[in-house]
Specification:
Elements lengths: L8 E3 L11 H5 L8 E7 L3 H21 L2 H19 L8 E7 L4 E7 L6 E5 L5 H9 L3 E6 L3 E8 L2 E9 L2 H6 L5 H29 L5 E5 L3 H8 L2 H4 L2 E6 L6 H32 L4 E3 L1 H9 L3 E7 L5 E5 L5 E3 L14 E5 H11 L3 E5 L11 E5 L2
Parallel strand pairs: 1-4, 6-9, 9-10, 12-16
Antiparallel strand pairs: 2-3, 2-5, 3-4, 6-7, 7-8, 11-17, 12-17, 13-14, 13-15
Helix pairs in contact: 6-7, 10-11
The structure holds zinc ion.
The site of zinc ion (ZN) has 8 residues, from loops.
Length: 385
């Protein structure tokens, strides 16, 4: 499909969280010919600058050598479009850049990222999305609620950028202290004040979580206020708590992100191992699972895939028919498609399966090798029916 009119130019002037990039819309875009250039590069430091230019020069040459004269001149026009964006110095907080462009479609997307992608430069029938998908899997949005008996801070972490969203505090205890009550009475009042403060926090968390589309939040803080708060949260908000951990109230932003990422990593591992179990069980029962490129592709084309499982960092060489989308793994492209005699081209089969998953609204999970049940096949799928 051609890019929609309002999708032709998307240029970010400041870093954008990976989760804000509309991968699904990008996955809709494809052509019969290799007209889409995709470029990924990291941007921190002079060292990268030098490595990027060596890498890009060699890729440009390799692509040019492989193109016929007509396509070479089109490719050069596309290069002209992106030239400025390749060499422009990074803006504040920008650690990487992703560019998709096609001169013949008048299509140009530039994303500045707060995280580092690996270098890639690909000319293909569609924007090359796999590196972006991997970044998205590695940098999911989540929250950290830091709470003690008198203060609560909700921070959102998106692509390693921490942004404080809510801040509540109370000084009730200090006011009460001046009254000159007995210690017992003061302690009771203090307990009551803490409970009412935490109830207020609990109400607030519910609203905050409702507004933010994070996958959950880490409940953190010193002492036992966090556990008291946990008990006050409604069940559906409790279900969004990824972990309860000890943390000092005056932790730095960097340390907060680091501690949060460690929890997320654990959560990822348990989700991977759960999916791996589901997959194995489905295979054993001969149920709702597909494995191997051929079966997974067929299931994706029929819209039957609920979750596509991809072995992390895997790629499978193969070819695709640019007319009927016939996809074959581990084979060199024949001159003509064996189904429709259409033109063929070399592809990364994993990228094609990922795009199919995006177009059919399937979930995608990148699996660590240790949790992937069948590392020979690289892909598997849990099916809807
Ligand atoms: Zn074909």
């Amino acid at each position: 499909m051609k890019p929609k009119q309002d999708q032709l130019n998307v240029i970010y002037e400041s870093p954008v969280p990976v989760s804000d990039i509309d991968i699904r819309a990008l996955a809709e875009i494809y052509d019969e010919k290799d007209i889409y250039l995709s470029i990924y590069f990291p941007l921190s430091g002079r060292e990268n600058e030098h490595l990027n230019s060596i890498f890009l020069d060699s890729r440009i040459k390799a692509i040019e050598d492989a193109l016929s004269p007509v396509f070479r001149s089109q490719f050069e026009k596309t290069l002209e479009m992106v030239q400025d964006y390749i060499y422009e110095a990074p803006v504040s907080g920008e650690k990487g850049r992703v560019i998709f462009a096609s001169a013949s479609e008048g299509f140009l997307h530039v994303y500045r990222l707060p995280v580092e992608p690996e270098q890639a430069m690909v000319l293909d029938t569609s924007p090359f999305l796999l590196p972006l998908a991997r970044l998205r899997a590695d940098y999911q949005d989540y929250g950290v609620l830091l709470v003690d008996s008198r203060e609560a801070k909700f921070t959102c972490i998106r692509s390693d950028i921490a942004e404080e969203k809510e801040h509540l505090s109370t000084d009730l205890m200090n006011k009460h202290k001046k009254g000159g009550w007995s210690q017992a009475r003061f302690n009771n009042l203090r307990k009551g004040a803490i409970k009412s403060f935490l109830s207020e926090v609990a109400d607030n968390v519910q609203d905050t979580c409702g507004q933010l589309k994070t996958q959950g939040f880490v409940l953190a803080g010193p002492g036992n206020a966090k556990q008291q708060l946990m008990d006050l949260l409604p069940k559906d908000v409790q279900d969004n708590v990824l972990a309860v951990i000890d943390m000092s109230m005056d932790i730095s932003r960097d340390e907060l992100v680091e501690a949060g990422n460690a929890v997320l990593h654990q959560t990822d591992i348990s989700r991977s191992s759960q999916l791996a179990d589901d997959f194995k069980n489905a295979l054993l029962k001969g149920g709702l699972a597909a494995y191997g490129v051929e079966d997974v592709r067929a299931a994706l084309e029929q819209g039957r895939v609920n979750t596509l499982l991809i072995l992390k960092d895997s790629s499978v060489p193969g070819w695709i028919c640019e007319r009927c989308q016939n996809l074959q793994a581990n084979a060199l492209p024949p001159k003509e498609c064996d189904r429709c005699n259409g033109p063929t081209s070399v592809v990364d089969v994993v990228e094609e399966l990922y795009e199919l998953a995006q177009r059919t609204a399937a979930e995608v999970e990148f699996m660590e090798k240790d949790y992937f049940p069948d590392s020979d096949n690289m892909v598997g799928a849990l099916l809807r029916y």
